[in-house]
Each structure stands twice: as C-alpha cells, then as structure tokens.
Amino acid sequence: MGEITYQPLRSLIFVDCVKEEYRHRLQHWLYYYHVPESMAKFEPWVTKYAFYNALPTPPEGERFGTYRMQLTEHYWMVNPSSEESLINAMSEYFPVQALQWQGTIPDGDAETFAGSGDDARSTGGDNGCPPFILAYLPIFWETDVKGAGRTMMDGPNYRWLFLISYPDGCSEEEGEKWMLEEVLPAFAEMPEVNRILTSRVKKEINNFHMDRCVEMWFDGPEEWYRCAVEKMADFPKPAWAKYDKFPFLRPQFEFASLFLTDIPTSDNLRQYRGYLPMR
Q1: CA torsion angle 225 168 212 78 (round to 10)
Q2: β-sheet with 266-267: strand ranges across
Q3: How confident is the model at residue 88 (pLDDT cuts 50, 70, 90)?
Q4: Do 68 and 260 meet the contact criterion of CB atoms below 8 Å apart?
Q5: How many CA atoms lie within 13 Å of 184's alpha carbon, on the beta-carbon side?
C-alpha cells in the first residue's frame, strides 16, 4: 500500500424509493444504522455528511429520471475508494433489502439474492434495474454558467440536480459539446433559470458511468416545468437520441435527477444525536 494522500472530493448519492410501502423502512435503516456506522468509520477524514430530502416529483418528472428519497452528500479529504481504505475493523450493516427498497435490485429479490448489500450495490444496472448512483466530483464547481452573485436575500431556491451519461453512439467529445454549447446555453437564456453550475464527474475514482453533473435553480416547480418541459419541447433532437422528448435519454440509467431545497434535512456530523423516536 502507498502513503495516504490529501485529495479533496465531493460525492453525491442519489437514493430512490420505489414504493411508499418502503419509505419508512428505508428511512429507519438510514438513520438507525447507516448514519452512526458511517460516522464511526469516516468522521476523521470527512468534513460534511448531509442528507437532503427529495422534493415531490413535478409533472413529467419521471422522464427526467427523478429520484424520490434523498440526496446523500459527502465532502472527503482523502479518496475513500483508495487501496488504503479497504481494511476496516468492523463491517457495515448493509441489508440487501435496503437496495430492494431503493430499486437497485428487483422488487422481491432480496430473499433470493446471493450476496451482501455491497454486492447488490455494485451490480451497475446489469440486473435490469437502475445502477447505484455514487458520483465523485471536484470539491468546487468547475464552471459557473449563470447567476453568479446570487445571495440568500434573493429568496429560496428550487434546486434541480442532475447527472448525465452520454449514450452509445455519442462520443464523449460530442456529448460535451451538446451539453455545454447547446443545452446549457438554451437554459441560460430562460429568465426563469436563476443559477447554473456544472462539473465533470471524476469517473476514475470509482469507475462510475455518468459523465457530467449540472445544478440549476428556479423559483419553484412551475418555473422548472415551464423551462424543462414546455420551452424545451422544440429543442432539436440529436442524431443519437433514444427518446423523442428532451432530455432524449433513458431515465435513471443515462439521466438521473433530484429536486431539492437549499438546506439539508440532517447535517449529520453536526446534528445527529441518535435515533430518538417520538412517543
């Protein structure tokens, strides 16, 4: 093993909930087991570990690959996927059912899945379900497209966070040109869009399949719908498109979205005090 090096990173985990029957079960596992176990492992080299509850899916949001549970965000000081991080004194409790609740393995397959939660998390979509979303980014946004100078005094933000994977038949160079020179400028011209930021995904950290992360801010879901659905209805369809409507990509597999507020539901390193149920 080599020497541990300082490598600031930001990571995003998109967490879905495939049935309302599962939401309370998934939340229980996250807060009762996952948060304290995670902090026990990585608190010395993580500066932020937060959950943001997903806002309700707006009309037609399904074709944008909307995730319905939460965003998990980390700020790392070292690469958590490095060889040096692989030896752990105690393993995490990661039941396979947690991946079933998220839709990473087929509903009902938890009892027959021959492996652990980590095994299911690494299936990468090969089982027909959407791949597990864990994207590493630079710790700072790379490109400021629109809205620099916006402050808290400008009001609350309806955040649309999405990841995109350029599909077969579209080279990385072609995909980047489409996103940076056609899609983002089209949104930047819309007065309803208040802020646009974007970064390349650091795919080399965990061999992740997504290429780029984008965040846009709106005043609310009606403004998002006016822009992403109505105004983009006539946006030119690229030659590689698999679908007729923008964003022309397979939901959750090639285009994954979350809708969020400005503030985390739980800034875990500072706010978590254990699983304290109301009685």
Answers
A1: 140
A2: 133-137, 9-15, 70-76, 46-53, 266-267
A3: confident
A4: no
A5: 25
Instruction: Provide the 3-class DSSP secondary structure of residue 253.
Output: coil
- Cross-strand partners of 199: 213
Locate all alpha helices (DSSP H) within 75-165, ordered by sequence: 96-102, 117-121
Contact 179, 127 (CB under 8 A): no
Amino acid at 142: E
Under 8 Å between Cβ of 144 and 267: no
Comparing C-alpha atoms, which of 131, 162, 125, 172 is closest to residue 246? 162
* pLDDT reading at 122 higher than 80: no
Quick: pLDDT tens for 1-38: 567 889 999 999 999 999 999 999 999 999 999 999 99
Model confidence pLDDT, tens digit, residues 66-86: 999 999 999 999 999 888 888
Mean pLDDT of 196-214: 97
Average pLDDT (101-117) is: 71
- Integer Cα distance of 7 and 256 in angstroms: 26
The answer for residues whose C-beta is within 8 angstroms of residue 152's C-beta and 6 or more apart is none
Query: 142, 198 in Cβ contact below 8 A?
Result: yes
